[in-house]
Amino acid sequence: MSTVLKKTRTLIDTRMHYCPGCSHGIVHRLIGEVIDEFDLREQTVGIAPVGCSVLLDAYLDIDAVQAAHGRAPAVGTGVKRALPENLVFTYQGDGDLVSIGMSEMVHAAARGEKITIIFINNTNYGMTGGQMAPTTLEKQVTTTTPLGREPEQAGYPIQVPELLYSLQGAKYLSRVSVHNPKNINKAKKSIEKAFKVQMEGLGFSLVEVLSICPTNWRMDPVQSIKWLEENMIEAYPLGELKTVEGVS
Amino acid sequence: MSRELMRGNDAVGAGAIAANCRFYYGYPITPQNEIGEYMSRELPRAGGVFIQAESEIAAINMVYGSAATGGRVMTSSSGPGISLKMEGISYIAAAELPCVIANMMRGGPGLGNIAPSHSDYFQATKGGGHGDYRLIVLAPSSVQEIYDFTRMAFYLSDKYRNPAMILGDGFMGQMMEVVETPDKKEDDEYAKAPEKPWAITGCKGRERNIVNTLLLDPDALEEHNWNLYEKYKVIAENEKRVDLYYTEDAEILLVSFGIASRICKEAVENARSEGIKAGLIRPITLWPFPDHAFNNLNGVKGILTVEMNTGQMLEDVRLAVNDRVPVEFHGRPGGTLPDSTAILEEIKKIGGR
User: A134 preceded by cis ω (within 30°)?
Assistant: First the structure.
């Protein structure tokens, strides 16, 4: 008999605090699966952000450091420079990474820091109750854009891989989504590649994951998936923006 | 022993490397730029890592990361830069990670200036960032002490798993003096780091380690606060350090630290030569504050605290003295230095002359 499916070793067998429908659980699972497949659990350090995924260390059975808001790429830099053989990744939401942590992200990429950022884009600040994020779409209603995000007043959404594209230290930049099984499989493949780029010492890697936030979007999970498909993918095109030849 | 002419800022770097510091993360700010320049040159030669970070905020968070792995790590800055680091320092204190921070103080508040000052005494000794925590704060008054105290700071921060700060100033960072450095590294207690079973290294062959400062349950956070408090109590019991100068028969006591204390020594000598029994209490640890040095005030007519600010350590002196004798203040804020003649005049006033 061959095993077709087994529990993910790196994922801790516990109840998650995330809201029903939230994408965090799927992405945690994908990271756990990739770490298992690469047999890197005992060599991995995760950096948790401030936001809904602040409790990352409660769900992944790895050494972990919880960082101040936005500072995970700097903390990850300090860890990686001390432990160059280890797999070091940060897990950050759109507020943490793209607003308060913009500087740390850009400069980690510019230095070609051999870390991976897993970036959860759900277009709002989930933990604090659904305020506008840098990735909030035009016209999107949040608790701080009650009439919809007006660029005249609140600016435009930020596309992260596109923003980092010109930086030579950034070697792998992709955007994936986890709104259906096909895209979940693609997302896993992308996380695999990002980790490979890091472990082969090639440089900085980032995977943006389009995610749903039913609670703060005031939709049920099915409506949320539809909203992501119809609105987010147009604003945030999926695919590999930058990759390294020979890494698959 | 070997003897070397050394600049104060270079002595921070030399002391750190002698203490086996292997990670330095910093951002340029005057008057301490020579520390980063020294580390960029010397640390890679010692097998260490130097990064010029994009900001003080990034630098202290890199410190947080390397400290979490158990490495000996430091950063340095001055006034405005230290303010930016305070968020990270609070996290490091909360996570009970060892590291060393050097603040070569300049005049404040705001951008202030780049001249020497004691403007950050409150910030250094009362925690500085958010939350209920303490730093171990060492105040050197010579380049030799900068070298020695930097080494000691690594030792103390490892011993108590607590960030330690070197509180110097722009004057001390720029001046050059002869420094004696020990030849035999293996005999140097300060160079030896203890075992760190809590370190983040990847969980090979053990249960995973977590460095986290989030304690959502108020009962758990209360317990953590009391545990930190107990640790600070032990540090306060064991680590108070003070230099006493002509204090035994003193009728007028000066209290001063850092570069100002050297000017006070001159004032004490001048007072003595005029028959005035003056002495100096020089706190070496600003936290824990050496309040025990004020236990016996028999025969003391008055105390004069001399600082390069508008009166910050003054509050700790008054707490220690507790109204037993009058405590006066002589201050020179904004990047100016006290003058020994002016201090002597104050001594005479207190002495009733």
Answer: no
B91 and A CB contact within 8 Å: yes
Order of all β-strands in the sheet with A239-242: A239-242, A170-177, A204-210, A116-121, A87-93, A44-48, A63-66, B210-211
Which residues in chain A have their CB less than 8 angstroms from residue B63's CB? Answer: 78
Most A CBs within 10 Å, among B210, B215, B216, B217, to test the A interface: B210
In this structure, is the dihedral angle defined by the CA atoms of residues B279, B281, B284 and B286, taken in order, positive or negative? negative
Are B62 and B198 part of one and the same domain? Answer: yes
Q: What domains can you pick out in chain A, each with its CATH number?
A: 24-242 (3.40.50.970)
Claim to verify: residue B130 and residue B211 sit in the same structural domain: yes
For residue A248, the distance in angstroms to the closest alpha carbon of chain B comes to: 25
Inspect the interface and report whether the beta carbons of A63 and B210 lie closer than 8 Å: yes
Q: ipTM higher than 0.85?
A: yes
Q: Give residue B307's domain range.
A: 243-350
For residues B161 and B40, state if they share a domain.
yes
Interface test with B, best of A50, A71, A91 (most B CBs within 10 A): A71
- State how many domains chain B has: 2
The model's pLDDT over A101-129, given as tens digits with 9 standing for 90+, comes to 999 999 999 999 999 999 999 999 999 99
The beta-carbon neighbor of B65 closest among A55, A61, A75 is A75
pLDDT digits (tens, 9 = 90+) for A68-101: 999 999 999 999 999 999 999 999 999 999 999 9
Q: Which two tokens stand for residue B167?
A: 């509180």
Indicate whether this model's pTM tops 0.90. Answer: yes
Alpha carbons within 13 A on the beta-carbon side of B297: 22
